[in-house]
Amino acid sequence: MTGAQYWTEKNQIAKRRTLDNNTDQTVLDIINQIKQSGDAAIRQLTKELDDVLLPKFQVTKEEFKDAYKQVSPAFLRALTKAKNNIQQFHAKQMQQSWFTNSHSGILLGQKITPLEKVGIYVPGGKAAYPSTVLMNVIPAKIAGVESIHIATPPQANGKVNPHILVAAKEAGVDSIYKIGGAQAIAAFAYGTETVPKVQKITGPGNAFVASAKKCVYGDVAIDMIAGPSEICIVADESAPAPYIAADLLSQAEHDEAAKPICITADRTLAAAIQLEVEKQTELLSRKHIIKQALKQNGRIILVKHLNEAFTIVNDLAPEHVQLMIKEPMENLRYVNNAGAIFIGNYSPEALGDYLAGPNHTLPTNGTAAFSSPLGVYDFVKKSSIIHYDKTALLETADEIIELAMTEKLTAHAESINLRKDGRNAKSYN
Length: 429
Prior knowledge:
Layout: H1 3-8, H2 10-13, H3 21-37, H4 39-50, H5 61-70, H6 73-91, E1 98-103, E2 106-114, E3 117-121, H7 130-143, E4 147-152, H8 162-171, E5 175-178, H9 181-190, E6 200-202, H10 207-216, E7 221-222, E8 230-235, H11 241-252, E9 259-264, H12 267-281, H13 287-297, E10 299-302, H14 306-316, E11 320-324, H15 328-331, E12 340-343, H16 349-354, E13 380-388, H17 390-406, H18 410-421
Parallel strand pairs: 3-4, 3-6, 4-5, 6-7, 8-9, 8-11, 9-10, 11-12
Antiparallel strand pairs: 1-2, 2-13
Helix pairs in contact: 3-4, 3-9, 3-10, 5-8, 6-7, 6-8, 7-8, 9-10, 11-12, 17-18
């Protein structure tokens, strides 16, 4: 399609996946069951939805030890390298409390305090995502969170995937619970006899998990409501078509609703990418998912020049942007809305998913226009610090009183007047 066609079909291409009322109602029912019956409701729902009957939810020390026997040395080496890179990157995000004394008698500042308890949801069951464990736990640990807990669905045998357990142990998690879906989110939000109530819930999940996070928000904080994976590659003739196709397909395999998009001004390259996508798809194990994603949301957009490409990128505000062009650093300034930006032909999105260090928990559904990747800053809270001595307050008392009276907030004004005049309260009736 052309750039002009993009703007004509924009509402369809940039359509955001929303949660339906049926899902929300099902989730609300689950949440109410957890609030009313706690562990008993979790046990019943796990039997109904996961076909697993669990006497206990918490992973034992023996299960952690056994997990190490089931993973390969190569996995452990790769995990360690990823862990180190993620730690090094996120350590630079640490914020410090600060104070300023700009005037005699005045002290202002900001106090940074880590959250006390955090719950992390890690998708599981049929698949394992140890990278999700690292990307959520490590920033929380660096922030100084005292207590970090994971919920993940049990496998058919009633156990947790060993790769998840090893990743959790290496990252420093305090406990893991074999609970999936909306019931896990509800358990973290409200607490049960076994599961601790937390202050914030992070981590991706299916539509039921996303709906549950939306429903409990306000009673507990959440990171974001994640949508389908998105990638937008801006490419010119310097980029190899096989690389571009492979990177598009790496996102298409996530979900039938994923959005793999490439924008180029080179008609020959566009044709080559199309051929490569078709050829490579047939070689992949998840081709049934990929074909649906390509059919529904896959696009190669042919523009007249790169300026037009960046206008479309910023309109889409995608989760991932790849700049596979001759001078990517010079053009980086034109990308304003993106969760993560990958620069050059040898910085594929998969690099960011696993090993580079920046977080792979990114804003989706166009929210990169106003949101940021998960980071250390998501696991702290900020308190303003204000101290005036008597002289400093009296110097500005009249201005405070004027503003308070303008807003007809007489109690505010009187709280200043009492200190200014050194007298008892008076009536404003």
